[in-house]
Amino acid sequence: MSRLLRGVVLVGLLGLGACVQTPLATAPVTNPSGSSNHPRFAPPPAVESQWDAGLGVYVVGGTPHLYYRERTYYRWNSGWSWASNPQGPWLPTDSSGVPPGLYRRYAQ
Predict the structure, then answer these.
(1) Beta pairing class for 66-69 and 72-76
(2) 15, 20, 75, 104: most buried, per Cβ within 10 A?
(3) Are the C-beta atoms of residues 61 and 52 closer than 8 Å to each other?
């Protein structure tokens, strides 16, 4: 009987060993030279933009002081406001509501 029990335990342990997965070796995501996109943050839809690594946001072309990151637009106009659409509606926020790079750029 103990021999049968040992066999069952051994089969169970071997079965568990098959469940262990080793991580796949993947190449790190890099920003290709000359690209205007960030490897993690998607660019804003339907507007021209370029990633600014120093600010940590996309700079939206054609509109001064308009930025984008993670489905949110940020606008500086003597104070910060944000919107989910580049046309608004715009809601006021303080510096804690914007990415740190933007806050530092406009800090007074």
Answers:
(1) antiparallel
(2) 75
(3) no
Best CA proximity match to 86, nearest among 99, 67, 100? 67
Does residue 12 surpass a pLDDT of 50? yes
Per-residue CA distances from 13 to 10, 16, 31, 63 (Å): 5, 5, 44, 63
Q: Are 58 and 73 in contact (CB under 8 A)?
A: no
Residue 5 corresponds to which tokens in the numbers above? 């029990």
Distance CA 80, CA 16 (A): 55
Q: Give the predicted TM-score (pTM) of the model.
A: 0.65
DSSP for 15-81? Answer: HHHHH--PPPP-PPP---TT--S-SSSPPPTTS-EEEETTTTEEEETTSTTEEEETTEEEEESSSEE
